[in-house]
Design brief:
12 helices, about 20% strand
Amino acid sequence: MYSFKKLAEEGKKKSVAKWKENIKLIHFRSLMGIDFPPTQWRINELIPSEGITIISAPPASYKTWLVLQMALDIAQGKSFLGHFGTQLGRVLIVDEENHQRIIQKRLKALGAPNDLPIYFLSQEEFVATQDHMMEGLIEICDEHLIDTVFIDSLVRINRSDENVATKMAGVFRSLRTICKSGRSLIITHHERKEGASGPSSPGSRMRGSSDILAAVDCHLALSRDKDDVFQLMLENTKSRDEVEIKPFEIRVHKDEDRTWFEYIGESTSGVKRKEEARVAILELLEGDSSGMSKTQIVQKITGSSAIGSKNIFSALKELIREGIVEERKGKGNTKLCFLKLGDREAGSKTDSVNG
């Protein structure tokens, strides 16, 4: 009679043999001899074909609006924002975020024509890790020749803990099966609120495990200007196959029954605002020898100018790193910022000469 240990060993050997039968080992020379085509794009420079793109943004930043605009442009073969060429294709939108009435209203506002090769799965409780649902979704794509899938949003099609890397790795392994046969997958995701320590990078602002960013081929971070709700910026923080494009600005236009987006160009506001923030910080500290906390500095400058807190924190960090501003311990656990004595004296001498 076989022992349980013997049976387990034989079962393991069979599993290993079966696995080896189903894989293809590639020699170095063979890999180097493959003539791969250049990167293919669903939307030039923004959405790769046969890959996963995640679009993250804080609430009320027009991300669903922008995704609908992308879908409309792909389905018509029109340039996105009149600037980025698209590859004409058929689209599926999996929307677990919004009611169909809201989707229809927004599509009408965007000027959608009456008939396009766009299909919807709306409020169907789709879950990415349910094998039968994923297989059914892929069959739908095959049946309707769909090559671009939008999912709004990640949190709605995921039942795993988004803060656990191993759980999210499993979610994205399942989602990647959509990308077979050259399909593009675009997923919206939420960003966490910025903490008291100031702004962080767009990639680290995404909610959940860092494995989410690691799992995707492209990440686009959408943000809305703090002082102008119709001014957006899109940042490309990750592109697995190509160099990331520079951040660019988008203008939202609205009238009574229509909404549209305008490509403004590469973003320069951040650089200009940061320079403005540097000047404002130095002026503020020069007139205050008792020191101020970072929070006080931000509150005073945002209260008297159009400079956002993100640029103030960034400029303050630069000034501290450059040694122009120094931090000293205040009462309790607080830290106070001071303009260094040498810089204060230099500033006073310059003023007296210019005066």
